[in-house]
Specification:
Elements: H1 6-20, H2 23-29, E1 30-39, E2 48-49, H3 51-62, E3 71-80, E4 83-93, E5 119-134, E6 137-147, H4 149-162
Length: about 160
């Protein structure tokens, strides 16, 4: 999926950088005052504010799987004035989810089983990137991830049980 829009390319490069763990690129495209929210509010996840906090959160999240094993496939891209929404499918081989394989067979709303012996796919995710300028450069100033709340609650419970 491609687009000539610089806003779309910036948002897509951010997704690619997260999966590749390209922290230098992420620092280049995010504003220092970035605010990253995971919604819906029922998850009670406070927004991550500031580049250092966001980087720490992304490193923690990507540390759950082997480097390079997560595939991000944009399904649909919607662009508006100052924002880009990307509907994303995330998939990863079960062998990359060592920390998640003892999952309690909880399933999300009809899409994911983290204890699947072959692979897992999570495709109910909408990333909204809000764009602005910082020091004369186009940056991502705010991100809203709309995720499947059942998936996130189950994942959080699993991690709480299996974190030393």
């Amino acid at each position: 999926m491609s687009s000539s829009s610089s806003n779309v390319q910036l948002a897509l490069s951010m997704l690619e950088a997260v999966t590749a763990r390209s922290w230098t690129h992420i620092e280049k495209v995010l504003a220092t005052t970035i605010e990253w929210s995971v919604l819906p509010d029922s998850l009670q996840r406070p927004p991550m504010v500031g580049i250092d906090t966001v980087l720490e959160g992304l490193k923690s999240l990507t540390g759950l799987v082997q480097n390079g094993s997560v595939k991000v496939q944009p399904i649909e891209i919607i662009e508006g004035a100052g924002f880009v929404v990307i509907h994303v499918r995330l998939s990863f081989p079960a062998t990359s989810t060592v920390k998640l394989t003892n999952y309690t067979k909880a399933k999300t709303v009809d899409t994911v089983t983290l204890d699947d012996p072959v692979s897992s796919t999570y495709e109910i995710m909408f990333c909204t990137f809000y764009l602005g300028e910082e020091n004369g450069e186009k940056k991502i100033v705010r991100v809203k991830d709309f995720v499947d709340s059942a998936f996130m609650q189950s994942l959080a419970a699993h991690l709480a049980q299996n974190t030393v």
